[in-house]
Amino acid sequence: MPELQERRVVVTGIGILSAVGAGRDLTWTNLLAGKSGIVNTTLVEVEDLPSRVSGQVPDFDLSTYIDRKGARRMDRFTHLAVCAAGEALDHSGLDVASEGDQIGCMIGSGIGGIGTLEAEFDVFFHKGPNRVSPLLVPMFIPDMAAGQTSIRFGLRGPNYNTVSACASGADAIGTAYEVIRRGDAVAMVAGGSEACVTRMSIAAFANSQALSKNNDPLTASRPFDLDRDGFVIGEGAGILILEDREHAEARGAEIYAEVISYGQSADAFHVTAPSENGEGAARAMNMALRKADIAASDIDYVNAHGTSTPLNDKYETMSIKTVFGEGAYAVPVSSSKSMIGHTLGAAGGIESAITILSIVNQKIHGTIHLQTPDPDCDLDYVSDGPRDLPIKYAMSNSLGFGGHNSSLIFGKYEG
Amino acid sequence: MRRVVVTGLGLITPVGNDVASTWESLIAGRSGLGLVSRFDASAYDHPIAAEVKNFNIAEVVDSKLARKIDLSSGFALAASHQALADARLDMTQEDTSRVGVLLGTGMGSAHLIIEQQQILDEKGPRRVSPFLVSHMLPDTATGLVAIATGARGPNFAVTAACATGGAATGEAAEMVARGDADVMIAGGYEAPLQPIYYAGFNAMKALAEHEDPTKALRPFDSTRNGFILGEGAGVLILEELEHAKARGARIYAEWRAAGTSNDAYDMFAAAEDGHGIAQAMRLAMSRGGIEPTDIQYINAHGTSTPLNDRVETRAIREVFGEAADDLMVSSTKSMHAHMMGAAGAVEAAVIALVCHHGIVPPTINYTNPDPDCDLDYVPNEARQAEVRMAMSTSVGLGGHNSAIIFSKWEDA
Question: How far apart are CA B82 and CA B64, in angstroms?
Answer without folding.
Answer: 21
